Amino acid sequence: MNNGVWSGTWVAERLGLELVGDDTLTQMLGLALRRNPKRAHLLVSNVLGKHVPQSPSVVHGHGFALGRRVRELLGAEEAAEAVVLGYAETATGLGHCVADGLGTAPYLHSTRRLVAGVPQAGGFEESHSHATSHLLLPEDPALLVGDGPLVLVDDEFSTGNTVLNTIRDLHERYPRRRYVIVALVDMRSAADAGRLDELAREIGARVDLVAAASGTVRLPEGVLAKGQELVARHERTAAPASRTAHGRVERVGLGWPQGLPDGGRHGFTPRHRARLEGALPEMAARLAEAIPEAARRVLVLGFEELMYAPLRLARELEQLVAAEVRYSTTTRSPVLAVDDPGYAIRSRIVFPSHDDPADGPGERYAYNVAGGDFDAVVAVVDSAADTAALHAPDGLLAQLAAHTPHVVLAVVPSYVPEPLYAPALSGERPAMLPDPLRGPAFSSYPPEEVGWLLQDLSDVTLEAPTEEREEAIQSGGAHYAESLPVEYQPSAQYQELFQAALDTSAARIAQAVGVVTETVIAERSPRPVLVSLARAGTPVGVLMRRWAQFRHGLDLPHYAVSIVRGRGIDANALRWLAAHHDPRDVVFVDGWTGKGAITRELAAAIEEFEAAGGAAGFDAEIAVLADPGSCVRTYGTREDFLIPSACLNSTVSGLISRTVLRADLVGPDDFHGAKFYRELAGADVSVAFLDAVAARFAEVADAVDGAVKDLLATDRTPTWEGWAAVERISEEYGIHDVNLVKPGVGETTRVLLRRVPWKILARAGAGADLDHVRLLAEQRGVPVEEVGDLPYTCVGLIHPQYTRGATGADGKAVAV
């Protein structure tokens, strides 16, 4: 009711329609008109949260109450075996709420969005809808298999055709003894009322119906033609709700739990429901912080099939803010808007589709938002819909900003199921590889930040004195990956330098993180699988993952794998990745390039892996934060500057050691190994480093956009000038081994921390980027030589032809 006027009055008077039924029917329903060749009128629910903004508690409460009624109908035993199926797009959220009321039922909704790699488990047609094809894409096909009741949920039950189509299709594939149909309103005509009984007899199953209200629409003769003429006349004269945007648009990161589905498109289990319940308070609190304190009315606006997550966020927000909170969603359904108290759709915002729909682009709509006097609108979309079209001048955000002073964008990661199994590839031996290691059991990173495709060697003594390792490596008696250096413990002065470097360069690093991540998403994959090269690449991979979540709401998978110079990448890690992800989506990540040795190593290893029968499709090009050696096309910057994570070892890399590859520890079916230095937790700055950089994301966002635009238009073909410089330096200084020349700030730091350094070459005039290098060099007695034409900020030279006799008793390097 609008000020005592029923919101179906306008249509009823002009078309002679009559709504007959329960006393609550006119409270639950209004009427509108649409351009549809099969049915001109539209029943507009006031309690569904689709076209009419409503209190989220009211919306959830109606669905939940229906679920409780179904539970009572079935009894505890059958209710425990029930599965709930909702209809896209209108009833996806309602079905979720019914499943909540049932309590223990898994939930699935049909979808009109194709999802690559997910096989169809069924489909059906909706006869009166403007978009008819429904797909069923459960992550686990067994969800639809079983003899327990199937509960089918739609917002209205009119002709019954949709339900009949569904039951016939599913019963043929997955027969059951019982079906329950649930609707907010049962609006069948007398002619349609007996069709469910006929179907039950036809398939030999029981079919029940539960509805919150019931009635019929009495239609006079010729109503369809009259309705179409009325729609056409008013469309010609209707003024659009669009106008120039003046409101502010702000993005808020929800912190959506990793791996939690965004809805029921692929199935939503009671376990998922429990995870969501636990995460809702913190996510809603983040939204509450973004809403102006003076706001009186706030709308949480969902997105087409994404109804339940926005609804639950809105319901939680309703408890946190003083403002009146309302909830509705955008829709594909075109409806005539008439600004009249007796009409259900008072206003209409039109904008282009922004989720690459399977049926192609087209108009989308938000009803009763314009003129709703909302002080803030929280738009909740999934990451598949967080596209350029969403942010375009005519896109949804701009249209909302024209009608409210404050728009908050919250992006829920689009859930794409991992395959339950992968077929064995020709020539590839099946290997039962373990799941990735995760913190806090392995590493100090939170478990969602990275999965380590490594085996834990924490209980094995692998450390050896630096000088002993260097002699063994250079004499050919051992490979550098067969042992570990003793972990360098920074002095107080060095720790101060690290913190100062972080304070100075955090924004610079944040921009480089944004640039490389945006480049990856634009050129490599819209939903990349980040695979960092442990361990220097791991902090960068985590930061890229955080940027993708901050900017796009993406919840990207991130793993760390081992690559060893001269031995290649861990082939078992590649097998695991190919079994769980499309190799074409995998993007290898490293911290920086020096002379490009690892770039070449990776390319050779991928080629060898494929030649041996491994999965094809891995792209060997590395994405790096900094590419001073001009070795790759995908980078955040080509400047050689101090990346503070290079200053430390495990204490900035999740307390994980360098990776280890030794025949007596790593078998043919094992991941490479590494150690977790739990005992260094007191000195750990791993998460603090990430937080300091991520805190600068918002301030560099505009700079990132400009840099990426320029970069994508630039010829980024690698010149390998770094490799040429290394070869020249190797000969000029009589080293004759490029492996002992480590160019760039990061590699020079590594030389000082882990090898026996001979001397440091520094570009003349290099400033604060080398403060930590100078301090380390002073502590180890290593000379720093300024060079005028150095292409890097600095280069570290490892002591050539090293033996322990080449140093003094204190282990300091001496000149040769």
UniProtKB/TrEMBL annotation:
Coiled coil: none
Protein name: Phosphoribosyltransferase
Alphabetized InterPro entries for the sequence: PELOTA_dom, PRTase-like, PRTase_2, PRTase_dom, StiP_N, TRSP_dom
Domain PELOTA RNA-binding residues, every copy: 720-799
Sorted UniProt keywords: Glycosyltransferase, Transferase
Originating organism: Streptomyces phaeofaciens
Domain of life of the native organism: Bacteria
A Pfam family matched in the record: PELOTA_1
GO molecular function annotation: glycosyltransferase activity
Domain Orotate phosphoribosyltransferase-like: 28-215
Domain TRSP: 262-399
Stretches assigned to the Cysteine protease StiP N-terminal domain: 443-693
